[in-house]
Amino acid sequence: MMRTYFPKKTEIEKKWYLIDAEGKALGRLASTIATILMGKNKPSYTPFIDMGDYVVVINAEKVKLTGNKLNKKVYRRHSGYPGGLKEILAKDLLAKSPEKLIRLAVWGMLPKNKLRKVRIKKLKIYAGGSHPHQAQKPELIPLNG
Q: What is the pLDDT of residue 27?
């Protein structure tokens, strides 16, 4: 009888990936990042174990939104109090906090379970072209599209 193999915590190797967001479509970028954070790009992927790697995103302010999303896409949040609905357009959020725009897109693409918060902590986003993670030597990921 063959038994299913599950990797131990000590056997899981964490890598660092560097992604340049300049000129990339937000959705395609977010789905690639979510795949790496979950560890689905590894042959030993297990859904209930945190297998994901770290992702560093640079040039977040240069990400592009296709179509008319920049002017029509609205991000909403509610404080829980009467009249507490806050709305912000995608172009305003991109100008104010491009890191938050990418983080929200990736957050929505991660599975809705207890590992979601653990995985999103491995995402480091920077608006400019520089980042402080030189010691880990991240690998550059080429994205198509």
A: 95
